Amino acid sequence: MKTYLQLVNNILIRLREREVTSIDENSYSKLIGLMVRDAIESVESAWSWSSLRQTLTVTTVDGTSSYALTGSGDKTSVLRVINDTSNNFMHYKTDQWFDNTFYNGTPAEGSPNYYVFDGIDTNGDTLVKLYPVPDGVYSIAVKVLKRSPDIVLDSDTLDVPFLPVQALAYAMAIEERGEDGGMSPVSAKSLAQGYLSDAIAIDAGKHPEELIWEAP
């Protein structure tokens, strides 16, 4: 598993620049660090990586319909929601459906069976709204794809395969400063895409059912 600093140094070596002991050592290493962070964002968004999957738990209280997915941030995708207390998968309903239910009628209370996203809270975490309004304590398991926050420390590591990230950041770096006798930006981007495709193919084998389309 590569650290943030190792990735930056791997790219500096390919650029025929000297290695650094800290990403903040000079202005160029800081720039490469920013490119690594941009590459991580791109790679994390390219696929539903198994390494980013987590299960968050919401514990309801009587009469409250909206809950924060604590620690989720605002870059989280919800894969499925399960009412673990009542032992059933919950179903997504549109925001308009929820508005009609809550504002044009009297919402029922009971075991939650439907959910919708309800913005973010003051901590930047995703909010979900449940229906029926819980009439007691229910344990709601939320399976999410939680993309990582920006890496900051030299020792921080990635949650996704490092080769696509490293190759993409390198392509950004040589594009930024122009060709200098090494690999062209086009070739570097093609190499990065190849690494990404290979990594996705390997990870897809862990969830082959997600590659099969079925009519609803």
> What's the number of helices?
5
Spans of at least 5 consecutive residues whose pLDDT stays below 50 are: none
How much helicity do the residues have? 25-40%
Shape: elongated
The topology string of helices and strands comes to HHEEEEEHEEEEEHH
Number of beta-strand segments: 10
Q: What is the overall pLDDT average?
A: 92
Largest sheet: 4 strands, antiparallel
- Overall tally of structural domains: 2
Largest sheet, order of strands side by side?
A: 1-10-3-4
CA(first)-CA(last) distance = 40 Å
Kindly estimate the percentage of residues that lie in beta strands according to DSSP.
15-25%
Q: Output the radius of gyration.
A: 22 Å
Structural class: alpha+beta
Structural features, described:
This protein is α+β, with helices and mostly antiparallel strands. The chain folds into 2 domains: 4-48 and 160-202; 51-146, no CATH class. The protein has helices at 4-14, 27-45, 95-103, 162-177, 185-204, and strands at residues 53-59, 66-68, 76-83, 88-89, 91-92, 109-110, 114-120, 126-131, 133-134, 139-146. The strands form 3 sheets. The chain has a 4-stranded antiparallel β-sheet with strand order 1-10-3-4, with no helix packed on it. α1 (4-14) packs across α4 and α4 (162-177) packs antiparallel against α5. The mean pLDDT is 92.
